[in-house]
Write a structure and sequence with these properties.
alpha/beta, Rossmann fold, six-stranded mixed sheet, four-stranded antiparallel sheet, 10 strands, disordered N terminus
Amino acid sequence: MTSAQFPHHTAEPQHGLPPAASGLELTKVHGTGARRVIALDRVSVAFQRGQFTAIMGPSGSGKSTLMQCLAGLDAPTSGSARIGAMELSRLSDRQLTRLRRERIGFIFQSFHLLPTLTVAENITLPLGIAGRRPDPQWLDQVVTTLGLTDRLTHRPGELSGGQQQRVACARALAGRPEIVFADEPTGNLDTRSGAEVLSLLGQMVHHMGQTIVMVTHDPVAAAYADRVVFLADGHIVDDLWKPETSQLLKRMQRSAVPRGQQPHG
């Protein structure tokens, strides 16, 4: 099944606004000749504003490549990637850097906090680098929602892993980005801390109006999302709304079976 069989993925505007991020016929090819690998094969997808979406798929399915192309971290071989109405291929390296800094938030598996800075300083560091001042009301809302009010003067070494990831989430949100990309954000956390962070990501969407796209291999993590887009072999093969963990586990098992051996229907 190819992305062409999912017409609802295409970038349709919502309430007069374009999707927060979208890709049209995205193709990414690595290598040449015998080493040529198609990581993405004409993928079209749109991520609407105010939704929490997870991208899932087996190792090598193209999920991280899709996120990197949509976030302007990598350029597709062909096709179109947009943040809002902005076509990324038309931007210079400097313009891309500015777009990522001002309109996109990033959360990674590793927290990337500076150990010599306080929590408050780590949260506002990207804004300072960009020469921007934080909106005090928004920043207070972010800090309160993420439960960091009494940790602002601490340093990362004084925090648990879950608390450090909360700081990373706050840093991603501090500039009020249009979209936040999260790459395996609970990969370094224990089950309890991971669940807390995922719950907070949901609150960021449903109570603060943020848009989050999360790459994960974990069906438990993906079940926190409103929507799960499933990739296999560089294609979108499923698009599920409010799925349960058991449903995602079954979908993963199907993807683990080679295509020629899968039952029909």
